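Hey all, quick one. A colleague (J.T.) asked me to put the iron/sulfur cluster job into the tracker so the inputs and the structure tokens live in one place instead of scattered across chat threads. No bug as far as I know, just bookkeeping. Sequence used:
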Amino acid sequence: MSYSAANGVSMKASRYNSFVDLSSADGILIFNSLSGALGRLDVETARALAQGLVPSQPADTLEHLAAGGFILPADVDEQHYAETNLISACFRATVSQAVIAPTMACNLRCGYCFQYASHDGVSMDRETVAWTQRFLKGLASSSMRLDVLWYGGEPLLAWDRIREILHEVRPWCESRQKLVSSRLITNGYLMSNAIVDEMVELGFQAVQVTLDGTSAVHDNRRGLKNGGGTFERIIDNLAYAVHRVRVNIRVNIDQANAHNLPDLHEFLISHG
Ligand code: SF4
């Protein structure tokens, strides 16, 4: 959603703005959770928006703010827009999306993991695999495209289940001119070259891998369940994966590792 701030339209600040104070020198990050826009502001402009005011800025700056949805015409009911958007997305039939955890088991032991209680080592049994195949076909039958997000636990511990489900569902969909795409959220440790090749064949479009810092910082937070680091092997795996599939790097940031972020950024840039 974006608006023009021109022609003297009365504007207001969006209720969906969030702010992160970088430091007085670097300004303030602003994020609008309705539009998804992200920007950097000087302190004064951010302060005005945080107070629900439209900042005193030149017209072109206001245009930028309006384009990002940070400000909008005063008579627009943003909350109504958000609710309507959500409801229409639920009933839009062009893309059906499913989020599937084939296992809640994990090979890592991250200190902050809220899923420990579920790390019981259980993966989908045959009956659940068959039920999931039927469910996905049913979901796909009412849309043009099926998009599946695989997560866990560590979903690659149940790669055979993922493969089995997709081997059944993809041909079924394709014979009905429906597209199937997959995405994977993984810790990256088991993402061997062979699995990446299979992922490409199975229509995976993207993977998300978490790195919480450079080697020592990452290993301290995201070590193996049975002890030992994971950083080196994940980087080796990524070196191949980035040439075959889109890779998104996620970083969980808190006070313990925030200082290491520039080093990680530099490391990733220098490794291509
Ligand atoms: S890799 Fe993910 S699921 Fe596994 S312990 Fe870490 S945060 Fe939890």
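Adding what we noticed when we looked at it: The CA atoms of residues 181 and 203 lie 5 Å apart. The domain at 92-270 is CATH 3.20.20.70 (TIM Barrel).
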